[in-house]
Amino acid sequence: MPLTLPFRPRRETYPPDMWTKCPSCSEMLFNKHLEKNLRVCGTCGHHFRISAKARLDQLLDAGSFRERDEGLASRDPLGFVDSKPYADRLVAAQLATGRRDAASWGFGAIGGRRVAICALDFGFMGGSMGSVVGEKVTRAAEGAFVERVALIVVSASGGARMQEGTLALMQLVKTIGALERLRAAGLPYISVLADPTTGGVFASFAALGDVNVAEPKALIGFAGARVSAGTIAEELPPGFQRSEFLFSHGFVDRIVTRADLRDELALLLALLGPAGATDATTGSVRRG
Amino acid sequence: MVDRLLGRPRDRETVPADPSPGVDPRDAVWARVQLARNPRRPHTLELVSHITDAFVELHGDRLFGDDGAMVGGPARIDGRRVMIVGHQKGADTDENIRRNFGMSKPEGFRKAIRLFELAERLGLPVVTFVDTPGAYPGAEAEERGVADAIARSIGAMTRLRVPIITLITGEGGSGGALAIAAGDVVVALENAVYAVISPEGCASILWRTTEKAPDAALAMRMSAQDQAELGVVDRVVPEPGEGAHVDAAETGRRLRAVILEELDKLAALSPDELVAKRGGRYRVFGAFDDLGINEPGPGGAERPGLADRLRRALEPMGKSVGDALGGRTGREARDARNTLDGRDPRESRDAREAREGRDGRDEPPAREEV
Ligand SMILES: [Zn+2]
Known about the structure:
The structure holds two protein chains of two kinds. Chain A is an alpha/beta fold.
């Protein structure tokens, strides 16, 4: 089935330099090709990070997404100041991204099947989870519950947002509580783990998918590698905290390339989604 | 509609004012952190010996092993049967090595889950003791799925059909603490602390030096009193004298009285009510505005929400750019954004994509351990 590609709007002029160096294989990639390839290096398969919008464009049937709660914005509940005020950091991130926080949720369709979906945006303060991200993930789960559809959350986050203190920590309980209610209602939840998914995001909704799907070589872990390597005198095993490491230890069901992700999700939804929905996908067997 | 809030101020007990009023608030909170970490502070098993009439420690997660950093088992308090689950630090270096300094591994959290589920099956209320620097951050913990174990422990707590009383007795260190801290009621000892990340970890990320840990402790408002202000903690229990370490027995007596009182209150609720009320307690945490929908009509000047008022009361830096977006109605906020941005939000989104396309740089992940 045709993929919706995240073409850059025509009216936008190209930035002066049109090339991107792959951080993995150092190949110079023509941006136009990189975009066509869903921001995956054509040479080595490195998956670049993508915005929540690009993610939703790639996964959902064209034009099917209806965003909800776009207007949620953090209130800086602690009046947090480090080298600069959190309030200023928020505004800077808002101006840079055009988004109010690090998550988007809404309803859309994948292969004709309606889902509630939430995508995190690493470009907004490292995708960190404060009140707004926690609320959006929770509302997505509640939306799935109310409409009796499957839930998909695509994570890309450094963890809980320190600037919101324990209120950020409480988002772990809030999101997990919503997932427990969804689970009790017999509705499936697919967690997609993209680079990176760490800290409190991994230790809450991201780890708890009925099916956990990871992009190749994504950094996925609880403690920061620096913490692990620094405070604990211990050699880190090869591939530590990468998708393949999680897969081999039994915490990820499948590692799926970005080009395959949409079809993979469509098939999983057809097999696991609420009964009674029309089955638009054709037969397929995915082993390995 | 906008005001989804934080804290319900609850029945907070009178707590002595900061040890030395007039001192730098940074020093005051840092003194609390030191007290919470004091090796002579009574840890879970010592407190349990003062609180309970009978206790049998159970071991093992039935999956991998037994974690000395997490203890638990059935107990009796004043004739009432409960299930105890708590982090366990050591009193000396030898014990700390055995207890892994109170840092649980996945098997510790899975032991907690096992005991939660046993308690539910037998109808025993759960009392959790929180005292940990955080979950163990080593490779073996990652291999055995520490994030999965923490998430599932929290999940077990959210659906448990028996009362849960959480006591934060020392260090409430991020996700490793929260894994057993999602109670119906959360009680903290006066010198306990609770934070999303260790002050050293926060300082090293945001200030780029651990020397700023006291600043981080203050900014995160990690004292029990501040946590009560935020509604994360429901009750603060005064400690004897200079702190719990001077009189473990008296600390235990005070906690025992609070446990019995809270057990009585929670006993009035049916299992359904209990689970619903607990869900509600955690559902409302968060402080945000809705600037998009539900905006008031023209001229419908909104009274600032509680969160706004709280923020202004707490805000030390006066008027910040954040006020341009944070504390206004939707329309004003959008206008402010457009003024600041100089174009419509759609364009700024495109601009970002263009920028991403240009440099394609993968920034190092913000590792915010939780
Ligand atoms: Zn490459």
